[in-house]
UniProtKB/TrEMBL annotation:
Residues 163-172, 245-259, 285-294, 392-403 have a biased composition (Polar residues). It comes from the Eukaryota. Residues 78-264, 285-323, 391-433 are annotated as: Disordered. GO terms for cellular component: P-body. This is DIS3-like exonuclease 2. It holds the Pfam family RNB. One of its GO terms (molecular function) is 3'-5'-RNA exonuclease activity. Residues 719-1069 form the RNB domain. SUPFAM superfamilies: Nucleic acid-binding proteins (SSF50249). InterPro entries: Dis3_CSD2, NA-bd_OB-fold, RNase_II/R, RNase_II/R_CS, RNR_Ribonuclease. Belongs to the RNR ribonuclease family. It comes from Anopheles farauti. GO terms for biological process: miRNA catabolic process; mRNA catabolic process.
């Protein structure tokens, strides 16, 4: 039997019936309206509808329909019902008369109703029995013609009887048409059945056939007896009604309403429904016969679903029969095709049925291994893990690739399971520490251990507790070094801030850095830890290096971590052998993620520092708020959850206590507060950067000198008294810690004596004291937007601060200089000073702008003590400026490189602490004046201390920038038509100045170059002189100074205090410091870390307040400069603030369209505004544009970008407020 779905089966029946009936009744109605006088003839006796057939279907010898032929309709009625449907011999005998009457009607002028002219042409398929079928068709059509005429006459009679029931008539007419259509179905079905019976095997009589169908009906399942009896009763009544109607009417008399043809048709409709139900049962029985799954449909929808399932089962059974698989193979395929959750349920249920697993006694959804199997569980698990480790190589990949159909990029696999690895990088980050090391040492290929080079295979380094034995690992690495496979390097670990899987260690012996590409390969070391790394010594070829340089050069300049990603993992690749020093405190700030389904025993904690992976916190370490909220349970109602604070919006401080493979395990230390609050956010910044701001205890404060402090007479006797000299301070207007003061006087020989006087903090902060032990851990003052966290107790800060009119202890440096500013002599002394005035940079600038001092307003300046006047101070300030200019020029000639970046200042609301305005601090000439003399003092002290104590002096060095990054920057600028020489700091500065001078937009060019040049620059670091051996290690690259240190800010930097002690010992006026070079180097490291963390925290605080200001202000239009661009983004620098933003081109579509073409070497980027009145702009490096920024989900976002068409100065933006007026307003604000 040809396969045909049940949907196609019944769709064909329905379409044929509707088309045929609609056409016939439509033509019949129109013909009756046109020819009302035409008589409609009918047969005198009932016609057996079983003898009429619409379409003959050819069959094969077995009675089955042939291919591509509509399916045969076979009745499954009972024997009595079958005989009743066949009709009586008298009814059969009336067929020839009907045929003759039909032929007479065909000779009339008007074709009769139901003739071929009014009905669709149906071509019989069986040509041998053409004449017989034509006679049956004619009789069939004539009978339909009679019934249609009767229906139309009944309709007209109803309309004449009551015109008010027009709507009811229409509905009756529609019901009548539907019933006539269903009667046609009955006629067609029964005629097909009789035709099928007549063409079947001659040896089988109709009675036998009926018995056969009856038997099959009993076997397959039939209608209930009650339904069959009702159908028989209705059919008998209908046939009687039709017979009476036909026998009592004349062939030429029109039908009347009393004959009730609709009642007869309703009975036919019931018979049709029974017949269709039997046909469906027969079809479903035949389709499911091969699968031995009998289908007894209850409703049509269920029958269709079960038929589809039986067909699918038949296909699956046929497929599995063709492919014979062992039971274990079948099980593997079944598990593979299931999803992870289905696979788990399948294994658990099968395991419980087999007795291998048991449900947990009181925990739902938890299944345990049966106790009797516990001794063998560990061995089975070990075998499975070993198998995975041995087969996780390229051979497995090849086998998998051979069974998977190749697909295009981005195309999803056809199977629900997936065995091919996504990328090489994912392979490299999988497996244990030993497996990843073996992968790295064996050319980056996954193999089993027996296929690796034995000399390059790390095995047997763990003990029974699965811990790595350091001695065995060291021995293995020593063998690699001996065979010159690689070499060892010690250094500080740096982790990519955007991908915590990638880390780097500086390698001074090579151009590139050491790249470590997984957490396990770095032994779970964290940012800043000192590690010992094994580095592969395999050098790349010149061709490879050239290709990599080309690839990097075509991209925008990125941070060092991103640039190294273009280099192959084999180049400068390594792994951590040992963790020498844990310098990271293993603490972080973040918030809990929403509970994962089924993970009720732990929650994931997401640190804000992206260099730390998500931390797993188990339930016993949860905070009380999380235990009370029960956010991880899905059974609580929404009202209960709404009443409990959401712990996912609370910031916590966490600590990592251990690692499980690559996952850190942590515990919660404390709750900081709710996200978004300014005070909470500021505190989180401090905690995140490991900055201690805890107030000093009472026992420490009790040891401090009294306020006001009175200098003892014996101390005055040991010091040089300068209280009568004209000494003054120049600091920011809001400064309270006054570290330094200046003096200048002309000597009798015509030379100048310049003095820099620094607060003598070490007189009070003695080495090894309880206060000193606490201060050395803080190492620096922290300058946030809303406050300052002092390194020293505030009481001691006020005692040491060089406030005017007070006697203060100082450490002074004096230079004698001639008219050419050549330093003739230098001396150091401990002094006592009394400042005559506290000037701000604004006051000093007014003096520099008016050198004569005649136009100065005395009321604009603070009080000047000791009999000095504003004009006298103005003369001294201008003398110092003339000397500073020459000193500055000398440093520039030596190659000083200065990269200034904007610094934000804010005006705060005194009541709420929220920012109301912001500005950018501008560097003036007065700032440079102070800077020049502080640099000179630091340089002089560095040489003096190193000369006296070459092993224990604290110095500060700045290494040259990363060579590879500078080459990439030079190549990028060259592609845009700009030349940059990296030979020295002087060449870099001169090239930078030349580019800015010849640029169309100097301010935009300066902003971009400052950002680009800051990226490859190294951090300046403190170090103990014992650990520096070459001139390059001593030198300060940016200042172009051979030796440098910090001496001028002891109130806010602990490193300066260490230098003061060494200088006092060098002068013989104090004891020699007792700390060893190792201890001094450790202190230098602390100072480096704290200073950098404080700088980053201050910048983060500025960005926090800027975001809050922007959120309150809404959208802001500012000028920006293009720094880089690609197909999907444009990176810009906000000119006045120095903030770098990346604008997605999709978000700019509301105002402009970005057209990018990848044209070598830089690409073409065209900005086309939607406003056609604004011309398009070709974007290149340093292009100045106007952008609109706003805060979206706490992120500063560029929402529009347009060319600058109006270059006239507009109203001052907040960033462009005059600094003079701004600082006047700032004096009363809490801004530091």
């Amino acid at each position: 039997m040809n396969s045909m779905s049940d949907e196609e089966f019944f769709r064909g029946i329905r379409e044929d019936i509707i088309d045929y009936t609609s056409k016939m009744l439509g033509d019949a109605g129109s013909s009756c309206d046109k020819k009302r006088s035409t008589k409609v003839t009918t047969t005198k006796s009932g016609i057996n509808d079983a003898q009429l057939k619409v379409e003959a279907v050819p069959k094969d010898n077995n009675g089955e329909p042939q291919a591509k032929v509509p399916m045969e309709f076979v009745s499954l009625c009972s024997e009595s019902h079958h005989e009743e449907r066949k009709g009586t011999p008298a009814e059969v005998a009336t067929v020839p008369d009907t045929v003759e009457h039909s032929k007479c009607d065909e000779q009339n002028d008007e074709p009769p109703l139901g003739s071929p002219e009014h009905s669709p042409k149906i071509e019989p398929l069986n040509k041998g029995k053409k004449s017989k079928e034509k006679e049956k068709k004619a009789a069939f059509r004539k009978q339909l013609e009679v019934k249609a005429g009767e229906a139309m006459q009944a309709k007209r009679a109803e309309k004449k009887a009551s015109k008010n029931t027009q709507r009811t008539s229409a509905n009756a007419n529609g019901d009548m048409i539907d019933k006539v259509a269903m009667e046609m179905v009955s006629l067609e079905i029964t005629s097909n059945r009789e035709q099928s019976d007549s063409e079947s095997d001659d040896n089988q009589s109709p009675s036998n056939a009926t018995k056969k169908y009856q038997a099959e009906g009993k076997k397959k399942g039939k209608e209930p007896k009650g339904n069959q009896q009702q159908a028989k009763q209705r059919e008998t009544t209908t046939k009687g009604a039709i017979g009476r109607s036909v026998s009592t009417s004349s062939p030429h008399d029109p039908p009347t309403v009393s004959q009730d043809p609709l009642g007869a048709l309703s009975g036919k409709l019931q018979d049709i429904m029974v017949e269709i139900s039997n046909l469906r049962k027969d079809y479903f029985a035949n389709s499911s016969r091969t699968s031995n799954a009998p289908a007894t449909p209850e409703t049509p929808k269920k029958e269709k679903k079960k038929s589809t399932e039986s067909t699918r089962k038949e296909r699956l059974h046929s497929t599995t029969d063709d492919v014979s698989l062992p039971p274990e193979h079948k099980l593997l395929v079944q598990l593979f095709m299931l999803s992870s959750s289905q696979r788990k349920k399948y294994i658990e249920r099968q395991g419980i049925e087999l007795g291998l697993l048991t449900p947990h006694p009181y925990k739902k959804h938890v299944v345990l291994v049966n106790n009797r199997l516990q001794p063998a569980v560990e061995g089975l698990m070990y075998e499975a893990k070993r198998y995975l480790a041995e087969t996780s190589g390229p051979s497995t990949q090849a086998a998998t690739a051979a069974t998977v159909t190749p697909r295009k990029n981005g195309e999803k696999p056809a199977t629900p399971g997936r065995t091919d690895s996504a990328s090489k990088s994912k392979h490299e980050s999988r497996g244990t520490y030993e497996q990843q090391v073996n992968f790295l040492l064996n050319d980056g290929n996954w193999r089993t251990e027996d296929r690796y080079d034995p000399e390059r295979t790390l095995v047997g380094v763990r003990n029974e507790a699965n811990e790595i034995i350091q001695e065995r690992l060291e021995s293995f690495v020593a063998g690699l070094v001996e065979r010159k496979v690689g070499y060892m390097v010690e250094g500080l670990l740096r982790i990519n801030s955007r991908n915590n899987m990638q880390s780097f260690v500086d390698d001074a012996s090579r151009i590139g850095n050491i790249y470590i590409n997984s957490i396990l390969l770095r032994r779970c070391a964290m940012e800043g830890d000192r590690v010992r790394v094994f580095v592969l010594s395999d050098a790349q070829s010149d061709d490879e290096a050239e290709e990599e340089e080309t690839e990097v050069g075509n991209r925008s300049v990125l941070p060092e971590e991103d640039v190294s990603m273009t280099v192959k993992s084999q180049n400068n690749a390594g792994f951590v052998v040992s963790l020498l020093e844990k310098r990271h405190n293993r603490q972080c700030v973040g918030k809990f993620l929403p509970a994962a389904p089924g993970k009720k025993h732990y929650r994931m904690f997401m640190p804000r520092d992206m260099r730390i992976p998500p931390v797993r916190v188990f339930k016993q370490d949860w905070p009380n708020a999380l235990l009370e909220s029960r956010k991880d349970t899905a059974v609580e109602s929404e009202s209960v959850q709404a009443s409990v604070p959401d712990v996912t919006e609370v910031l916590y401080q966490a600590e990592i206590i251990e690692w499980q493979d690559e996952v850190p395990i942590g515990t919660i230390l404390k709750s900081i507060g709710k996200c978004g609050d300014l005070e909470v956010e500021n505190e989180s910044i401090l905690v995140e950067h490991n900055l201690d701001v805890t107030p000093y205890g009472e026992e420490i404060l009790a040891q401090l000198p009294a306020v006001p402090y009175c200098i003892p007479d014996e101390e005055l006797a040991r010091r040089e008294d300068l209280r009568g000299e004209c000494i003054f301070t120049i600091d920011p207007a809001t400064a309270r810690d006054l570290d330094d003061a200046l003096s200048c006087k002309r000597l009798a020989n015509g030379n100048f004596q310049i003095g820099v006087h620094i607060s003598d903090v070490t007189y009070f902060l003695r080495e090894g004291s309880p206060l000193d032990e606490l201060v050395k851990l803080r190492a620096t003052s922290i300058y946030m937007v809303d406050t300052v966290y002092h390194m020293l107790p505030k009481q001691l800060c006020n005692t040491c601060s060089l406030l005017p009119g007070e006697d203060k202890l100082a450490f002074s440096v004096f230079w004698e200089m001639d008219a050419e500013c050549t330093v003739l002599s230098t001396r150091f002394a401990r002094t006592v000073i009394n400042s005559c005035s506290q000037l701000s940079y604004e006051h000093a600038q007014l003096m520099l702008d008016n050198p004569s001092g005649k136009g100065l307003d005395v009321d604009q300046f603070p009080e000047i003590l000791h009999g000095y006047t504003v004009q006298q101070l103005c003369e001294i300030v201008n003398t110092l400026q003339s000397i500073a200019v020459k000193l500055r020029q000398r440093r520039m000639d030596d190659g000083c490189l200065k990269i200034n970046q904007p610094k934000l200042t804010f005006r705060l609301d005194p009541s709420t602490g929220l920012p109301t305005a912001y500005g950018v601090y501008q560097m003036r000439t007065s700032n440079e004046l102070i800077e020049d003399f502080m640099l000179l003092a630091n340089t002089s002290v560095a040489h003096a201390t190193h000369k006296a104590f070459p092993a224990t002096s604290l110095l500060r060095s700045h290494m040259p920038p990363a060579e590879n990054m500078m080459k990439n920057l030079a190549r990028t600028l060259a592609n845009h038509g700009y030349a940059l020489s990296c030979a020295s700091s002087k060449d870099i500065r001169e090239c930078m100045e030349a580019i800015i001078t010849h640029a169309e937009e100097p301010d935009a060019t300066r902003s971009v170059l400052s950002v680009l040049l800051a990226k490859p620059m190294m951090r300046a670091l403190y170090y103990c002189s014992e650990y520096a051996t070459t001139a390059r290690q001593f030198a300060h690259y940016a200042l172009a100074i051979p030796m440098y240190t910090h001496f001028t800010s002891p109130i806010r930097r602990y490193a300066d205090c260490l230098v003061h002690r060494v200088l006092a010992a060098a002068l013989g006026i104090d004891v020699t410091p007792t700390r060893t070079p190792e201890e001094l180097q450790c202190l230098a490291t602390i100072c480096n870390d704290k200073k950098y963390n404080a700088k980053v925290a201050g910048e983060a605080s500025s960005m926090l307040y800027f975001r809050h200001w922007l959120e309150a202000a809404g959208e802001q239009e500012v000028d920006a400069a293009v720094m880089s661009y690609a197909a999907h983004f444009i990176e810009v620098v906000l000119i006045h603030t120095g903030i770098v933003l990346k604008a997605a081109t999709k978000k700019l579509s509301k105002t402009a369209t970005v057209v990018f073409k990848p044209i070598e070497p830089t690409g073409s980027c065209l900005l086309v505004p939607n406003d056609r009145s604004i011309p398009p702009l070709q974007l290149t490096l340093f292009t100045k544009v106007r952008v609109t920024i706003k805060l979206v989900k706490d992120v500063i976002t560029v929402c529009s970008m347009l060319p600058i068409v109006d270059l006239k100065p507009s109203a001052k933006a907040p960033a462009e407020i005059s600094n003079d007026n701004f600082n006047k307003d700032m004096k009363s604000a809490r801004v530091f």
